[in-house]
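Notebook entry, structure prediction.
Reason for the run: the old model in the group folder had no record of what sequence produced it. Starting over properly, with the input documented here first.
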Amino acid sequence: MKTKKLILTAILTAFALVAFVIEGAIPPLTPIYGVKLGLANVFTLFALYALGTRYAAVVMSLRIVLGSIFTGQLVSFIYSLSGGLLSFLLMILLKRFFPLKQLWVLSVLCAVMHNIGQLAAAVFMTQTLAIAYYLPVLILSGIIAGAFTGLCAQLVLMRISKIKYKS
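New structure, fully documented this time:
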């Protein structure tokens, strides 16, 4: 069973990395800098519910490290890491309160936390507190993106569980 989990973790990491790179190559959906859907998070959420916390942490960590290297945006590593760690910690703390049918709600909360972590890193890096005025925009974008990515992961997991029980 452990080998299957490792293989699935590697596949999810590869998919997350591809989604991250492709999303970075697509022109922004909004004129607001830094607002993205975060499609790679679908794979982290999937790993969390399908494989568990450890494997989800591996998917997220490798995606952040390799994504920064592959895109050549090593400065964004700090922002991705700070947002990723905060959102993942919240994910771990709250997962037991959100069954699969409410995964999208957990995803919204984690996406907002991710944006708060990135904003905190930006304030720290620039030593400019005025960046905090950007928070309402980031919260709104986190709600929208988190709902979308959470619903994607939730629908896939629910479909897989139906298939699993039919066979």
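Summary: The chain has six helices and no strands.
The old model has been moved to the deprecated folder.
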